[in-house]
Amino acid sequence: MADKLPSRPTLDIRDALNELLRRNDRTQDKEVGEMYLGSAIFIARLKRPQVLEGSWEDLDRTVDLFDLIDAHQRGDGSLPSRGSHRPGDRPNKSDSQF
Q1: Residue 20: inside a domain, yes or no?
Q2: What value does the CA radius of gyration of the chain take, rounded to a whole number of Å?
Q3: Is residue 93 in a domain?
Q4: How many domains does the chain have?
Q5: Does residue 37 lie within any of the structural domains?
Q6: Contact 30, 46 (CB under 8 A)
Q7: CA gap 49, 22 in Å, rounded
Q8: Are residues 64 and 43 part of one domain?
Q9: What percent of the chain has pLDDT over 90?
Q10: CA 91, CA 45: separation in Å to the nearest integer?
Q11: Three-class secondary structure assignment of the chain
Q12: Distance CA 77, CA 70 (A)
């Protein structure tokens, strides 16, 4: 079931709450996340967006999950090279450790 897009009145409520949050010293760094509007109750979950220092790469390729698990277990931290997966390397459900 697809999520419903918020209606214009809901967006207006979110915008008004965000404006009020910016005016208060204790809530300046927060914004409205999820909202619930019932027949007799209104709940707004606040979130605090953060910027994390770091870097990213666009690999423009798909990596097999089992190759990532193997690389993690080896502790080398490198991503597997393209085409490194061999069909016989993938564990079967019967011999899985999970």
Answers
A1: yes
A2: 23
A3: no
A4: 2
A5: yes
A6: yes
A7: 13
A8: no
A9: 30
A10: 42
A11: CCCCCCCHHHHHHHHHHHHHHHHCHHHCCCEEEEEEECCCCEEEEEECCCCCCCCCCCCCCCCCHHHHHHHHHHCCCCCCCCCCCCHHHCCCCCCCCC
A12: 10
pTM above 0.85, yes or no: no
Q: Which domain holds residue 62?
A: 55-88
Structure confidence at residue 1 as a pLDDT band (50, 70, 90): very low
Output 16 or 69, whichever has higher pLDDT.
16
Residue entry with tokens 């090279």: 81
Residues 41 and 59 in one domain: no
Is 19 a domain residue? yes
